[in-house]
Amino acid sequence: MSASIARQRAAAGRNRPWCDDEALLGRMLLAPAVIYITALVGFPFFLAIFYSLSDATVGSTTLHFVGLRNYEGILQDPTFWRSLQNAIVFTLISQALVVVLGKILAMALYGDFRGKWLVRLLILLPWVAPMSLGSIGWLWIFDPVYSIINWSARALHIFGPEIWPVWLGQPDLAMASVILVDVWRLLPLATVIILAGLSAIPQDIHDAAQVDGAGFWRHLFMINIPLVMPIMLVALLFGIVFTFTDMIVIFVLTRGGPFDTTQVIASYSFFTGVQGGDLAAGAAISLFLFPVLAAVAVVFLTLARRAEVA
Q1: What is the tens place of the pLDDT at every residue in 250-282?
Q2: pLDDT tens by residue, 160-214
Q3: 47 touches 59 (CB < 8 A)
Q4: Are 218 and 263 within 8 A, CB to CB?
Q5: Which of 24, 93, 185, 270 is most deeply packed, by most CB within 10 A?
Q6: 78-309 has which CATH code?
């Protein structure tokens, strides 16, 4: 009897439509994402590894295996170390500002007020607009002749007759300028993510804190920030990845200048591999991003999980 029942179940399983097979359906739904990631990320990644171990150059149809020679040359290049230092400073300062300002904006948008939808739309515009066009707009804002910042400050008597900053031509001001543009770009994303975290906090918790007489600062540091901390860490992780791997702002505004003071790993890899023609060295430089970002991702996801459990 048991054997016949098993055969009947097996026959029913074979005759069951594929859409009713949860395991098969799950694999089919995941297949497009796996294919997309493999084609868009996996293939270029392994191709970069292959190029970094060769002497590939632009315009050459032949290449030879050279081992770790490209990596040894990069480690002896002072411009590489300066680019790495600039990338770390650029990322840390910009993301610290993004998280703090994103938290403030999220709390301001959390409450109900007239015209909130319009304010949300205006805040999201920098993220929706193409970054290249936005960077070109900032290029005009920082222009040494037509800068609206300089002319407005001169009209308001903030700048004296002898003060006329060249925002993209002075090392400290150039780094501050690209950080400002990066904050302008990533602030909407962080705001939306943190706002979603605030909206997920049950209203009963806020009501209980109000009944207990918790003030603004106690409510902020004892309830608001701890409960939103996992979401804030995720927003910070996204911001670090986007900032550390992006070169649009640097390419449009400063092209790494003046004197490589705004050169970062992503832009240095592009200028070396594409514009400089040394594909092997450019690929080797770009691969230094992978272990750094992998370590950052593991650390932040671990912290987010612990904060969520706590």
Answers
A1: 999 998 888 888 999 989 999 998 888 888 889
A2: 878 888 888 888 899 999 999 999 998 888 888 888 888 888 878 777 877 777 7
A3: no
A4: no
A5: 185
A6: 1.10.3720.10
Collect all residues with Cβ–Cβ distance below 8 Å to 93 and sequence separation of at least 6: 179
114-129: string of b/e by CB count within 10 Å (b at 16+)? eeeeeeeeebeebbee
Bridge partners for 65 per DSSP = 54
Picking from 245, 239, 233, 242, the residue whose alpha carbon sits closest to that of residue 298 is 233
Domains of the chain, by residue range, sit at 78-309
Residue 157 sits at the vertex; the CA angle it makes with 153 and 161, to the nearest 5 degrees, is: 90
> How many angstroms separate the CA atoms of 265 and 255, rounded?
12
How far apart CA 191 and CA 198 sit, in angstroms, is 10
Assess contact for 243 and 94: CB atoms under 8 A.
Answer: yes
Asked if 197 and 308 count as a contact pair (C-beta separation under 8 A), the reply is no
Residue found by looking up tokens 């990069």 in the block: 74
